[in-house]
Design a protein that fits this description.
Layout: H1 6-22, E1 44-50, E2 62-71, E3 77-92, E4 98-104, E5 159-163, E6 169-172, E7 177-180, E8 195-200, E9 209-218, E10 231-239, E11 245-253, E12 260-262, H2 274-281, E13 288-297, E14 308-319, H3 322-329, H4 342-349, E15 361-366
Antiparallel strand pairs: 1-2, 2-8, 3-4, 3-7, 3-14, 5-8, 6-7, 9-10, 9-13, 10-11, 11-12, 14-15
Length: 367
């Protein structure tokens, strides 16, 4: 038997160990530990108490409309609300029938082309007669010679927003929002409504109306006269110093339907009236003179007549952390910086970001 010396055996053993060592993986172990972390939710409500009228609203009417906010989520939030209003009128087709389209009732009181019209507080005595806050606010319409010229271009808002507790809501003219004065905690509702009601101005401009006069010479009753049988004539009416309106001239249209011939005082009694018209028309003894007067809305000066009003109320809830509020409230849609009311900025500056929760931001709108 061949003998191996100890040195050779030692080298062989080392080689074997090296070979075996090359086939082993290094020790590697992965350990995981779950760390449960749940998040709450941001839920909010725009609280409104409003029953829309079922009939057309009359000038001077007040309609209850209470608007507030509630935090129904798990974390503190801050809230702001804005009110935008618009007047629209249904578009008629060629036959005078309503379509599904609407057109805006334009008013220059809209700021920067938007529908954010002036908002007046019930306590603004400048808009009350004689500083009596119990009297209904009178809408001012600067530039109007009368209250019914049918032009809306220079009208102020004609729907008053009667605010609630104005000490709890701070208006920011820079963005048109009303800011609630403090942080709204979990489950809390604003302790003062932003809005209590809206009032329609008692002298709202419901359009300019023109009077048209017609006559018919015939027999029978007025109700039996066909519509196309009436002949239009022109009447000039003048209001006297006693407030009464008198007819001062009657004119008959000539064949060209444009020029007229004055009737005048045919019987010499010092007045111009239906008797003079009958004499001028030479009404036969066996026939009657029928007259009718129509009040017609001027299509070019409708004012707010036959129109629909919408008050859009938009709320924005933002988590009560400085970074979130800065992102949401200090920039407008174009990225321009918007200054917040000093009182609201002070609340934001006092927030401890470590104590108010995670992220969230929500908007809600109601008409």
């Amino acid at each position: 038997m061949k003998k191996w010396n100890k040195k050779a055996l030692a080298l062989l053993g080392l080689g074997a160990a090296t070979l075996v060592g090359g086939t082993f993986a290094y020790y590697n172990q992965t350990v995981s530990l779950d760390n449960p972390l749940g998040t709450g939710k941001y839920e909010n409500e725009l609280v409104e108490d409003y029953t829309p009228p079922t009939e057309d609203v009359k000038p001077g009417a007040t309609i209850a409309k209470k608007v507030g906010a509630k935090n129904t989520g798990d974390y503190p939030v801050m809230v702001r609300i804005r009110m935008d209003e618009k007047w629209t009128r249904v578009v008629l087709d060629a036959d005078g029938k309503p379509t599904n389209q609407t057109t805006p009732v334009e008013s220059l009181s809209q700021t920067n082309g938007s529908n954010n019209l002036p908002i007046f507080n019930i306590a603004d005595t400048a808009y009350n007669e004689g500083n009596d806050q119990q009297k209904l606010w009178q809408a001012t319409q600067p530039g109007d010679e009368t209250e019914s010229n049918g032009l809306t271009a220079n009208d102020n808002t004609v729907v008053r927003k009667n605010l609630g507790d104005s000490t709890k809501w701070i208006y920011n003219a820079a963005d048109g929002y009303w800011y609630y004065y403090k942080i709204l905690g979990k489950g809390e509702t604003t302790d003062g409504n932003l809005l209590e009601s809206i009032s329609i101005a008692s002298n709202i401009d419901l359009g300019h109306y023109t009077q048209k006069d017609y006559y018919y010479v015939g027999t029978g009753e007025k109700e039996a006269v066909p519509d196309n049988a009436w002949t239009e004539y022109k009447v000039t009416r003048t209001k006297g110093t006693d407030g009464k309106t008198w007819v001062t001239d009657i004119e008959l249209y000539n064949d060209d339907k444009t020029s007229t011939t004055s009737v005048g005082d045919e019987n010499g009694d010092g007045e111009v009236n239906a008797i003079d018209l009958a004499i001028a028309l030479n009404v036969p003894a066996d026939k009657k003179l029928f007259r009718k007067n129509e009040s017609i809305l001027d299509e070019n000066a409708k004012g707010y007549a036959d129109a629909n009003y919408t008050l859009m109320v938009t709320s924005q809830f933002v988590q009560a952390t400085p970074d979130a509020l800065k992102t949401a409230w200090t920039k407008d849609a174009e990225g321009n910086t918007v200054a917040l009311p000093a009182e609201i900025q002070a609340v934001i500056d006092s927030i401890n970001a470590d104590t108010v929760g995670a992220t969230g931001n929500s908007d809600s709108t109601t008409p």
